[in-house]
Design brief:
The structure is a homodimer of 409-residue chains. With 409 residues, the first copy, chain A, is α/β, with parallel strands linked by helices. In chain A, 43% of the residues lie in helices and 11% in strands. In chain A, the strands form 2 sheets. Chain A has a 7-stranded parallel β-sheet with strand order 1-7-6-5-4-3-2. A two-stranded parallel ribbon of chain A has the order 8-9. In chain A, helix 7 runs parallel beside helix 8 and helix 8 crosses helix 9. Chain A is elongated and about 70 Å long. The two termini of chain A are 40 Å apart. In chain A, 50% of the residues are buried. The interface between A and B is large, with 114 and 115 residues. Chains A, B: Pathway: Amino-acid biosynthesis; L-lysine biosynthesis via AAA pathway; L-alpha-aminoadipate from 2-oxoglutarate: step 1/5.
Chain lengths: 409, 409
């Protein structure tokens, strides 16, 4: 949806880890200046309101859409200034639309007065056969005609293939080269079925980078658990844009999650990510979206999952206390969270609940923590309660508390 | 825990996708015979009962451990025969233990009568400084002494470094080469903090493959969402073993999840995976472990997540109906599941609940489905209910039904 298309200060590529200040330069992965890599100058195309609406349980009303758009962490001081400048021009935002690659759809899109049109067509043999039934020659001819029309109307144009990794490589490159020469602003590569691996992604994007001169956008589904790693590989190979959605919601089990990508990139390129994104906003937008589509934040979610910064005491405890970087690649504080060293008690214990409240930044007195712990135990008597349910109970209890306090004032 | 250390028929490497029968040979990713790759002859070291116990909320009693061990999907006819043969020898299983690399711990381990000792030592500057305080020279000297002792007792020995990706490359290779020459059965590489990327993994394992002749085990944490992709890259580079746990439970947000790795590998090497593993057992062991450590199966879990095989009707519907492979890289049937095409209704609707029951293989009459739907709605009145809570409600209702029926018979 709202990509941060503001021009970036494309600084030198840094492959240092988040903990790089303390890290020895002797690591073979430091100080690699790979000039094709965009890991420290990527852009995010936040698609919660597009791909996310394809999630089985997503039915966003206008109010929810506005809430989500406002809560997205693309709001560093610089992004805010960029937004204000654009808003000052009388525009609300850059409005793009996603249409099938044919003249009829393109004309409708242009008539709506959009700023950009994103043309999409399936290029795999599956989609050629079972979806639109067109040959590559016809696809290319139509694409060039539609692109010429859209450009003639003074509108931005992007061209994406669908199911790119099950498409014939020569077909793909032929198409992309033709649309690049015809002047598209960006080409898109999509792993529509979620079957690509990081090396497949690196190879295709690296090859494509040598064929087109425009920006390259990438879109990865997570069916085989590789959507975050594939995005990272794409950037290393020269892709410029990554599609994400909050918690990854999308068709089937979704796409590259915004939060997990932030976790990945803040380790790869800490300065770029910390300066560009308001990482402390992540937890809130995830909770907003989770509640809108009625899901729990997964227990194993990077950054915001129940246990992401929980260390179980034992062999690790001494080292963690001496220096958290020994067993932690990301400092929770940059996401506005805290670490928690668990002391061999089930998480439903009173002390554990208090620690979780502190981790979430929910201020409560000891009596209040005891009361909400009792509530959690009561709930657990009705049905088996998962630890990741606890967060939502804590949050609703905290909201109630705040309401009561507001009434008393 | 119980690795399938049975000898494999190491067939030719196939990079075909699951849908390869229908796939055109023109895909650039087909028919690549990379002779160093182990993607079609890997072994899994199932660590739910080791790494999994480091998960914040894991406190397994003996009964639970036995249940989990029995439910693991490493139970193809061949694995079963292997197990029977081993059991016939009067052994329960091969018993390995994980100890710090020093003579005292190694002696204790050997005195316990274990079959193998896995020596572990931190090699990163962080761990050298904040954990054990030893230099690489001392680590090497101690390791060789301990290895010689363990071997002299007729016990198998494995040597792993900890935090390998933040260790000095030359230090690492020197150590691994020395322990390989000293005759260890396997070396281990561990991304203890979860910061590695697929290309870092490929490079290190590819280099190591040229330095040691023994097996290579790998262990990936998921802090930056790359644990599945890193495991795949390691196999491509010549690693032989991958550590997993059910749902990935482990320290912090855990390690490579067994189920997600199965999803990944069944696409990369379908014949190998389908013949070796009983994939239909996955759902049950995940539910068992989730319940034991009080977590929900994440909504976006590959294979078993609520929406993994749910397609939202729309642009995709026609093609999915004509040929599911158009928008599905994995056939749900091989995991004993079914696909579901959602027809624009919130998942809590009665028809959606019926579809989910069918997907989970829970047999209920329409009246029973209506009753459980009412229960779900009732529960939702008490507190906001997530769709991924629904599975556990459906399962407990179904168990109740079965109990009632058993009483009536």
């Amino acid at each position: 949806m709202c990509g941060t298309d503001a021009p970036d200060a494309a600084g030198p590529v840094s492959n240092g880890s988040h903990a790089s200040k303390a890290n020895p330069a002797s690591s073979p992965y430091q100080n690699v200046n790979d000039f094709i890599s965009n890991v420290a100058r990527f852009k995010i195309i936040e698609s919660t309101l597009r791909e996310g609406e394809q999630f089985a349980n997503a039915f966003f009303d206008t109010e929810t859409k506005i809430k989500i758009a406002k809560a997205l962490p693309v709001s560093s001081p610089q992004s805010y200034e960029d937004c204000k400048t654009i808003c000052g021009l009388g525009l609300k935002a850059k409005i793009l639309t996603h249409v099938r690659c044919n003249m009829e759809d393109a004309k409708k899109a242009v008539e709506c007065g959009v700023d950009g049109v994103d043309l999409v067509i399936g290029t795999s043999s599956f989609l050629q056969k079972y979806s639109h039934g067109k040959s590559i020659a016809i696809i290319k001819e139509t694409a060039l005609e539609v692109i010429q029309y859209v450009k003639s109307q003074g509108v931005e144009v992007r061209f994406s293939s669908e199911d790119s990794f099950r498409s014939d490589l020569v077909d793909l490159l032929t198409l992309y080269k033709a649309v690049d020469q015809a002047g598209v602003n960006r080409v898109g590569v999509a792993d529509t079925v979620g079957g690509a691996t990081p090396r497949m992604v690196y190879d295709l994007i690296r090859t494509l980078r040598g064929v087109v001169s425009c920006d390259i956008e990438t879109h990865f589904h997570d069916d085989t658990g590789c959507a975050v790693a594939n995005a990272h590989s794409a950037l290393e190979a020269g892709a410029t844009h990554i599609d994400t959605s909050v918690l990854g919601i999308g068709e089937r089990n979704g796409i590259t999650p915004l939060g997990a990508l932030m976790a990945r990139m803040v380790v790869t390129a800490p300065d770029y990510v910390i300066n560009k994104y308001n990482l402390k906003a992540l937890k809130e937008v995830e909770e907003l979206v989770a509640s809108a589509v009625q899901i729990n934040i997964p227990f194993n979610n990077p950054i915001t999952g129940f246990c992401a910064f929980t260390h179980k005491a034992g062999i690790h405890a001494k080292a963690i206390l001496a220096n958290p970087s020994t067993y932690e690649i990301i400092d929770p504080a940059i996401f506005g969270l805290t670490r928690y060293i668990s002391i061999n008690s089930r998480i439903t214990g009173w002390n554990a609940i208090r620690a979780r409240c502190e981790q979430l930044g929910l201020k409560m007195t000891d009596d209040e923590v005891k009361e909400v712990t009792a509530k959690i135990k009561q709930m657990a008597d009705i049905r088996p309660l998962a630890i990741d349910d606890t967060d939502s109970i804590l949050h609703s209890y905290h909201i109630e508390l705040q309401k009561k306090q507001a009434q008393q004032v």
